[in-house]
Amino acid sequence: HYQIGSTMSRIEKNNTGVLSKNDKRTTDTQPNYKGRAKINGKDYWLSAWVKTNDMGSYLSLSFEDMDKELE
């Protein structure tokens, strides 16, 4: 289990990512898991929410470009 900011502060391998449980979650709108991903050489923040429907549980994902923070 990786922790953001320690072992996986930077994703080196392309088209991979890592998620860790969001221990700071206080509302249902905040993600259950947070992490990072590198897709086609570009770094993204990764958020995941645990959802359920008639077919069972699944993860809903959101990717946010890390470069947008610099704008």
What are the SSEs and their pairings?
Layout: E1 16-21, E2 33-39, E3 42-53, E4 56-65
Antiparallel strand pairs: 1-2, 2-3, 3-4
Q: Brief description of this entry?
A:
This protein is mostly beta strands and about 70 residues long. About 0% of the residues lie in helices and about 50% in strands. It has a four-stranded antiparallel sheet, with no helix packed on it.
Key terms:
71 residues, mainly beta, four-stranded antiparallel sheet, 0% helix, disordered N terminus
Structure commentary:
This protein is mostly beta strands and 71 residues long. Helix content is 0%, strand content 49%. The chain is built from no helices and 4 strands. It has strands at 16-21, 33-39, 42-53, 56-65. Strands 1-2-3-4 form a 4-stranded antiparallel sheet, with no helix packed on it. The protein is globular. 8% of the residues are buried. Residues 1-8 have low confidence and may be disordered.
Topology pattern, helix = H, strand = E = EEEE
**Counting H and I runs of at least 4 residues, what is the number of helices?**
0
Number of strands: 4
Q: What profile does the largest beta sheet have?
A: 4 strands, antiparallel
Helix content: under 10%
Distance between the termini: 32 Å
* Structural class category: mainly beta
Q: What percent of residues are in strands?
A: over 45%
Low-confidence runs:
1-8
Radius of gyration: 13 Å
Average of pLDDT: 86
Shape: globular
For the largest sheet, list the strands in their spatial order.
Answer: 1-2-3-4
